[in-house]
Amino acid sequence: MNKSITEGMKRRKQIIEYAIKEKNNAKAARKYHVTRQYVHYWMKRYDGTIESLRKESTKPKSHPKEHTAEEQEKIKHCYRYHRHEGLAQVYRKLQEKGYTRCYDSMTRQIKKLKLKTIQEKKKLEKRRKKRKQVK
What we know:
The protein is mainly alpha-helical. Helix content is 63%, strand content 0%.
């Protein structure tokens, strides 16, 4: 991870230091053309170091309803052996094995796991053959 000091961090420090000096968030907001809420937000986070003004990711680390590794393995296994019968059949086989989620969740996981259908693989092979012929 890159720990360099960004221009945004420098600007936020400048705004915060001005707000502290003047003891007025509104005045700092007007001077630097930002909102009072912006100044207040960064004032709360500021602990005297420039590192406290680094933007953090808002992406969650995990999700409580995320598919477990066991469920993903079940999907991979059933998809591998039953994909030629169609996704509905894969879903039915998964339900027999104890899969309790909806059909759409299964299809999203198949996309996420990058499992290819037979037709997609055939299309890729055709494209590769055409590229080789062109060269």
